[in-house]
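user:
I keep going back and forth on a fold encoding question. Separate attempts, laid side by side, tell us more than any discussion would. Would you put together a sequence-and-structure record for a protein of your own picking? Write it directly below this note and I will take it from there.

assistant:
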Amino acid sequence: MRARGISCVRIALDVPLPTLFDYALPEGLTLAPGDRVTVPFGTRQRLGVVIEAQAQSELPRGKLKPVAALRDDAPRLPPQWLELMRFLSSYYQRPFGETVIAALPPRLRSVKPLPRKSHAAAPPSGARFAPRHATTPAQRAAIERVCAALGTFSAFLLDGVTGSGKTEVYLHAIARVLERGDQAMVLVPEISLTPQLEARFREAFPDARIALLHSALEDVARTSAWLAAARGEAGIVLGTRLAVLAPLPRLALVVVDEEHDTSFKQQEGLRYSGRDVAVYRAKAAGCPVVLGSATPSLETWHNWQGGRYERLALPERAAAGARLPSVRTLDLRTEPAQHGLSAKVLAAIGARLERGEQSLVFINRRGYAPVLACEACGWSAGCGRCSARLVLHSAGHGGRGSLRCHHCGAEERVPAACPTCGNVDLKPLGRGTQRVEETLGAQFPTARIVRIDRDSARRRAELARVLEGVRRGEGDILVGTQLLAKGHDFPKLTLVVVLNADTGLLSTDYRAPERLFSVLVQVAGRAGRREQPGEVLVQTRYPAHPLFAALARHDFAGFAAAQLADRKSAGFPPFVFEAALRAEAKKLETALAFLRATAASVAAPAEVRVFDPVAHIITRRAGFERAQLLVQSASRPALQAFLSSLSENLFRDAPRAVRWHLDVDPIEFD
């Protein structure tokens, strides 16, 4: 006869099933929710987390395997953290066990115990604050408003132009938090920004313990920082989106710098938004959250307009005498570019060289050229695994270079002749950072040219060294991608040139104009951050486009109003909520059939609209054909209820021939 009501512990495991597992509690072992344990699962030992310590199992007593061991080498995971994991699992439609285990640093997921170390009680985090700059009236008003909200939940949009001193506001607010003996969390979008910000924080708080958290850290360092946050030893937790998942027992302030940045959205596994989770965490902790940006996301701007957020404005640059740069468009229809650069651009760079100032040439495309083609027959180098062209990368010094796919990472040698017609005169079409660097080197042979992209600075330490050299003036012309667009302060840089800006105007993605405006404002903001005036030159074939007019006026509010009006009329976020079900298979029809069958398996309520599945724009990637269907609703609860039913069917019935995932609040549709 099957026994019922047997007391057991319920444990979350990292397995692809949306369920928890029951285990018997060995005699003499006491467990509580949040304990990490080792349990047998199949033929292996796995790391699990106790979710319920006195669960009632319907399995026969003889079927329950016992917990193997308690892992007491790290603090018990607090109830508030487990509640956060429940929210993430439910909202983003991922298994609870996967969510819990994946949120831990790698060494805490392992069945191997951490090395035994004595952990004496940590002294309170130091509160000595060494500000570098005097604050402006606007900064002081923002600081006082944030500090007045400590101890209660408030969401602030810190809307500050580039160079307005948003970091100084963060530092002063954090100083007040540390004085109270509490903890602050600061999120930044890119790992490349952390060294500079880390140095600024350590300078401002010489006695405070700062825990640094991002994916590029060695496992030991990342685990140590996570434990310092969890034990309350670190007064400041500074990191990328994954830092938002760390437990902080005395969390009193959350800061999200460059909150608009798409890097805050995780694009695999648990596809969470670091910014949105930061707001949730602040609300759960009863503390303020500050979302800082010169170009707020339209969702955040809409939340301010709807009264859900409070706006704190920093309308002027903080440095004495610094002004926002002038912005001009150069019409490529009347001023054709030679080798990608117009005569006015070359003259402007030459003038800066004569004055000992720096110039930045921005092109958001790495490599030498985006296409290698044969003009005789029309052949172009394409990736055999993706529906995309291979990008030509130069080897330098007369080498043939290589062809690389920026989607799957495939790499090939450059052919000596066209594989179709045998023509040996293959042409690179278009320009990337390498080709622009080559062109500038030929035009200005004595200039020190520094190229900064993911090819030239693969290692974090190397990138930090190059950036510090540029800040000291060890470069005359910078050539770079988005790595240079935000968070950097180059005192001698007075000219920014933008190449290839028009691609963002021609995209089918409704978010493309928002992203283009944001990156242009950010890269323009590198110019004229001291007393020398800054200038921005944008090469374009569409100089009359409203986006460029708003950029020249430094009018984000006007740009946002126009974009929100377009989104509202078209039925796009933030006026509706979205999710995308994506599928990959060896054949496109398999993926499309799977999506059609899945959509038909759950009756959508009237408030939810399910669109027909379509192929991705880049249909084939890494050997798989990709398709997606979009789900929209004006009601978030209605959408979540529908997704929950859909997810249940997917985990139960999805065929193995198809790889799938649900992306809630998607931001990319390539």
